[in-house]
Design a protein that fits this description.
The protein has 296 residues and is of the alpha+beta class. The chain is built from seven helices and 16 strands. It has two domains: 8-122, Aminotransferase class 4, branched-chain amino acid transferase, N-terminal domain (D-amino Acid Aminotransferase, Chain A, domain 1), CATH 3.30.470; 133-284, Alpha-Beta Barrel (D-amino Acid Aminotransferase, Chain A, domain 2), CATH 3.20.10.10. The strands form two sheets. Strands 8, 9, 10, 11, 12, 13, 14, 15 and 16 form a nine-stranded mixed beta sheet that branches. Strands 1, 2, 3, 4, 5, 6 and 7 form a seven-stranded antiparallel beta sheet that branches. Bound molecules: 4'-deoxy-4'-aminopyridoxal-5'-phosphate. 4'-deoxy-4'-aminopyridoxal-5'-phosphate is lined by residues 39, 153, 161, 187, 190-192, 210, 212-215, 248-250.
Amino acid sequence: MYYSDKSVVFYDDKFVKAKKVACSPFAQTLHYGYGIFEGLRAYQTASGATIFKAREHFERMKYAAQKLSIPLSYTVKDLENIAYDLLDQNNFKDAYIRPLLFCPDNMRLASSRESILFMGAWKWPRYLGNELLSTCISSIERPNPKSCPVDAKISGLYVSSIMATNEARSKGYEEAIMLDQNGFVAQASGANIFYEKDGELFTPPAGHILAGITRKVIMDLARERDIRVTEKQVTIQELKQADMAMLTGTAVEVALIGSVDEAKFKRNVKNSKCGELAKSFADLVHSAFEPAYTII
Ligand code: PMP
């Protein structure tokens, strides 16, 4: 699914065939989750394949590398160029792009002086589908922000996301809503959450969440449309009594939620602000938002 015989990836400073890449079993990241990654999407637009918010994603990657003291020997611009070359080499217009900065052989619990950059891309339709999602409140909490920065995409942080998704699926739900350590709604396993009440939007504040790039775009789109957005601590009860809710993230894009545990949302998608913003987001990513040429 992620690669074929022809796929090309960027690995250890060069483009190579994906099937030729071999990773050492002594890599520090493999054992301890001490690595960072990103997830970006390229869309076919009138000015060719365009990576949505490429700079913002690579700046977040640089921030994560600094936070963890993992050396990153590429600038944000270098990373953007590698991502565009990767799309060209694989002849992709619409694709999901996955950079991973990982640490090579080192079994000590101390920072490496070396790192290896991997970047791969594949066709990945929105992974949560197009129907209204059934979700449940997870018993697995978001990681404690005092133990590891939760505003960075750190490999090891995703263990709790996988556990939360496994739990939700085992109970017959599609996605998990995770709480923070104080019992407030935080986010889904790999996406942010908004709920709608009386025509206004509410979303948990930064602190325990990965305040995503899509979340920010949705907030900007809402404000442009005079839809009020408030960042606040959200209780389970508030979420369950909402008119509608949605998840936002690069992989899920905007996914509308139909229910949380036994509570079903009543609002019709077509009349909801969430539905309106999902449509605006889809239009935005396919528009030539960063033209390859300038009209003077
Ligand atoms: N939370 C987590 C844990 C994520 O992995 C993601 C996906 N990157 C998000 C939220 C959404 O972030 P973004 O909109 O930047 O993709």
